[in-house]
Amino acid sequence: MTDIEKQALELSGGRDLSQLRESMNRLATRMKGGANEEGFVLEVSDYGKEYLQNIWNPKPQNCSPMISYEQEMEYSEARLAVGRMVLRRGAEIAAIKGLESYKIEFSPDQAAAIESLIKWVINDKSSILPLSKGVWLWGGVGVFKTEIMKIISKFSLTQKVNEKHLSKAFHFVDWSLEYTNSVKHKTEISQGMQYDYRCFDEFLKHTEDKKEFGNTYNPNEDLIARRYPRFAHSGQKSLFVSNFSPDFAADTLSQQSFDRLCAMVSSIEMPGQSKRI
Questions:
Q1: Is it the case that residue 58 has pLDDT exceeding 50?
Q2: FRET label pair with 109: which of 29, 59, 140, 176, CA 20 to 30 Å apart?
Q3: pLDDT (mean) for 49-68
Q4: Which range marks the domain in which residue 252 is found?
Q5: Residue 69 lies in a domain
Q6: How big is the CA angle at 241 (ends 240 and 243), to the nearest 5 degrees?
Q7: Co-location of 37 and 170 in the same domain
Q8: Which of 264, 263, 272 is closest to 114 using CA atoms?
């Protein structure tokens, strides 16, 4: 027996060619719901038949799921729903501050930015934001960037169209807290941060590195490194809220991280002065 024949016999579990052919014939009989050599009828479930069929005639698998950017609801309807949430948030702020009332108002430029965000989340192609990318929302302190993004996040998670959530429903993350906990406890960021559509608030508020055992670790860089492959492979969206412009990100992040960030998101400014004054 040659070395090749010995190797083939070992890989086949000790079965020769005739035994392998017999095994394949039995498998083909099972796929057709036939009988085995003892005459017993083999009943295979639908799932089992599909499984065996896929093994016998495997179908090519797509590397990434098909993403549809079809508009999921009318902008006027979405704007009305978000508007109600803004009014409710104003009432909550009034109660917290002990005021008789508190009305959240936006300038025309701010309203235009909010319109584009709403259109982005419902896949309205008239949004100035590319529907295939995530969002970098930036602006000065106190212009209600966080408030409006929290509201749009809540809208995206609670709004249903044909009993389905919006395809861009995203969760809101206090990134400042996640970052400081990572540095304080000398741990990496939570594993869950790389999954799902998420909005990271206060991004780049903290930029200091964490050093451990001679190695330098930066949670901002780590977050981008974890989320970029999921964007490139399946289109998973990331949103960031920051007091800093993309130029600051370019100066702060490594070239590789900034390049990936640019691929993942498009920026939009929330202009204006602080509403906290």
A1: no
A2: 176
A3: 50
A4: 75-269
A5: no
A6: 130
A7: no
A8: 272
